[in-house]
Each structure stands twice: as C-alpha cells, then as structure tokens.
Amino acid sequence: GPAHLFRLAGKCFSFVESTYKYEFCPFHNVTQHEQTFRWNAYSGILGIWHEWEIDNNTFVGMWMREGDSCETKSRQTKVHLVCGKSNKLAYVSEPSTCVYSLTFETPLVCHPHSLLVYPTLTEALQRKWDEAEQLLYDELITDQGYKKILKEIFEEAGLLKATEENEVEKQSKKITLEFETVEKCSKEYKQLSEEIKKLRVLLGQHGIA
Asked: Which domain of life is it from (predicted)?
C-alpha cells in the first residue's frame, strides 16, 4: 500500500465506548476488551491485517479479517481512513453481527493523491494497467473484463488476497502449460501409466487391495 502510511506500523490507537475499549494497530490487528469486573469479561481479536479495499483507483479501507470465531464465522473489521488533524480512532460500530466498522482519522490521507493505488505499483504492473485502459478505450474488452484485469493486478501487487478459486485456477494453468504438444502429453501419460503399474504390483506384494 501507500509507503507514507507505513509510519503507522508498530503503533496502536484506542477508543473507549461504554464498557468496551477498542484498539487498532495498523498493519497488525484490531482488538476489543470489555472493561468490567465480570469474571468472564470479553477480550479478543476483531480481525488481523488482511488486505485493502480498493474502489475507483483509491485505497478506501483496510480489511482486518479472521478474528475470533463468532457463531459460524470469524469476526472481521473494515477500517475507513479519513482526513483528520491527528492520528486517532474516532468511531466504532457493528453494522452487522461480528462485522465491525472503524473510522481512523489521520493527516497522512489529507492530500488528494495520498490514497491513489497506481503510484504504489511497480512499473511492470503500471504498464499492465495502462494496457488495460487502452483495451477498454478501444472497446476491445468490456467494463467487467477491465475490472477483472485490475483485480488480478491488485492481487499480484499483494494489495488483495487471491481467493482459493483463483489459486486453484493458477495451479491448473501451470499444469496445462507443461504440455505444449500432444507428443509431450502422450509421453507424460505413458510414464504415469508405468508408475501406476509398478505401484499396483508393489501393493499386491504386500497384500494391500
């Protein structure tokens, strides 16, 4: 993400609301501590630093996911970054069960270009984005296709976590790329068939069905 925000790493900011104290440690986690004298007062993790939320070439929030379990899912928190005079956790809410929303004020995001995604990318990824823009302009790809390319760029840059489906797709692509010709495929198939035969014999010798 934006390099100037890294100076927040290693620091923590707290916010107290009624009996709860919330603590946000950028690029680390979000925690909640119940400040009561009950023997089983809640103290736990509302999310661990996971990925950015990106909209319209802008970093709009930080997702802290995979916190403590909550019924059937894990607690997660979205941190909204807004311009403010000092670094402080300004507001906390729970818009839906176990999904929290934090507002973090900081002067580091006051400049209109401070949260742009494009400048944070490598030259190679910027070129990829430029090409996608050109393809969209020439109407060679749809808006949906353009968004898909951008998502891949953000995943490659490590700004977004790739979904499991994408990972599986990538792995299967790697495998298919190994067989550039039918001959190579046939050769590989023969070798695997021989290996299976040997394994069957070996299993038979040990009386394993």
From this structure: Eukaryota
Token pair 């709860």 is found at 20
Share of the chain above pLDDT 70, in %: 91
Contact between 31 and 100 under an 8 Å Cβ cutoff? The reply is no
Q: Is residue 176 predicted with pLDDT exceeding 70?
A: no
- Largest Cα–Cα distance in the chain? 77
Per-residue pLDDT, 205: 83
Instruction: Please tell me the pTM assigned to this model.
Output: 0.71
Q: Do the beta carbons of residue 78 and residue 67 sit within 8 Å?
A: no
Evaluate the CA torsion angle 117, 64, 25, 96 in order and state its sign.
positive
Instruction: Determine contact, residues 39/25, Cβ cutoff 8 Å.
Output: no
Question: Which amino acid type is present at position 147?
Answer: K
DSSP designation for 163: P
Residues of the chain with pLDDT > 90, as a percent, come to: 56
Q: Pairing between strand 88-96 and 76-83?
A: unpaired
Alpha-carbon span 75 to 65, nearest angstrom: 7
State in Å, rounded, how far the first CA of the chain is from the last one.
Answer: 54
Which residues 6+ apart lie within 8 Å of 12 measured at CB? 23, 24, 25, 28
Alpha-carbon distances of 94 from 21, 68, 78, 119, rounded to whole Å: 14, 15, 10, 33
